[in-house]
Amino acid sequence: KNQLFTYDPGFMSTASCKSAITYIDGDEGVLLHRGYPIEQLAENADYLEVSYLLLFGERPNKEQYREFESRVKKHTLVHEQISRFFHGFRRDSHPMAIMCGVSGALAAFYHDSTDVNNIYHRELTAYRLLAKMPTLAAMCYKYSIGQPFMYPQRHLSFSGNFLYMMFATPCEPYVVNPVLEKAMDKIFILHADHEQNASTSTVRTAASSGANPFACIAAGIASLWGPAHGGANEACINMLEEIGSVDRIPEYIEKAKDKNDPFRLMGFGHRVYKNYDPRAKVMRQTCHEVLKELDVQNPLLDVAMELERIALSDPYFVEHKLYPNVDFYSGIILKAIGIPVSMFTVMFALARTVGWIAHWKEMYNQGAIKIVRPRQIYIGHPQRDFDKMEK
Ligand code: SDX
């Protein structure tokens, strides 16, 4: 147990900050949120319980859970003028482009939660962002298909309400499918936080300048969008569809190993995990459960399973310690739920918002914030003179 908290000096020299929120052991494939293993959280908690744990450091009791849930639900509506903001975008805009825009624009509507030096503002911001991201995400989808926005329903769960806002229409009753609701909630839990990944580090860097929380979250969304990070779930499903069948897998494995080919196996490899990403194990299990309960045959799952089997037995992947990561199976579940591929990274951003907020809050709880200011190794010209050019 005590070996968990001893670091070698080398590690600490590269650590960007101290945090008590999430612990990862990349060699062992361990992920803890406030000390609780991700496998147990995925099995026994719901997303709002995990959100409370990440934000406040301890799991909620029943009363605290009800109070937290009620406060989140109170903030699910967005200012009516934000819906007009959407109409400034093309219908075929990538939803992550819209999310970057509208999340930052929240600062223009909620002035009573932008003073980062006011603890009441900071508390209100946490509830507003956690509650409004699903509403904004669903609005992105509705806008893209030309359907009316659906207002949040407070009698539904966090994930049930999200599915309602995504798929209900004013024309007919919509009943939340409990299988999809549970799968959606589990996907949100598995993406909630992940230590100092690129987007969380982006949020912390933006926060270190005293930027308002909505601007910091917009920066995190921008960073997450890249295919090397949160954009990998969209890239992975596109890759599986391009491979198309099991017999084409060897061709793609060879492409992934070819140093002259920029192709990489999407959903494989990780900067920290040099073992199986524990979230990918839960995701794979959930994949099987959801497809079985929905009685859906998805050939992409067969391709993914065979791709994993071949890659994990290939010396290149073994030597480079490349295993499936959180993005490898998530797309298959999201497709089964009915989420379009273009919205996959928005799902990641929606779920990760609570992690970003938890880190943002932790910075203020740790006292005076010093601006993040990395240095560099200069490899440019030595000093030289610039004389006036006769023009
Ligand atoms: C997420 O940081 C986080 O915690 C992120 C995340 C979170 O929850 O926030 O976990 C979410 O972003 C997961 C990662 C999603 N990205 C992908 O699935 C994209 C595909 N993966 C790769 O781009 C890559 O594995 C990275 C970017 C994820 C990690 O790259 P690293 O650790 O910097 O590894 P590297 O680029 O130094 O590669 C090491 C070697 C290289 O070969 P050599 O030059 O040493 O011979 O492994 C090879 C790479 O070419 N390699 C791969 C590969 N990933 C690395 N080869 C083929 N396919 C891959 N996917």
From TrEMBL:
Q: In which pathway does it act?
A: Carbohydrate metabolism; tricarboxylic acid cycle; isocitrate from oxaloacetate: step 1/2
Cross-referenced CDD domains: EcCS_like
Where in the sequence is the active site?
H270, D327
Under the heading InterPro entries, the entry gives: Citrate_synth-like_lrg_a-sub, Citrate_synth-like_sm_a-sub, Citrate_synthase, Citrate_synthase_AS, Citrate_synthase_bac-typ, Citrate_synthase_sf, Citrate_synthase_typ-I
Question: Membrane-crossing residues?
Answer: 328-351
Query: Which GO molecular function, any one, fits this protein according to its record?
Result: citrate synthase activity
What name does this protein carry?
A: Citrate synthase
Q: Which organism is it from?
A: Testudinibacter aquarius
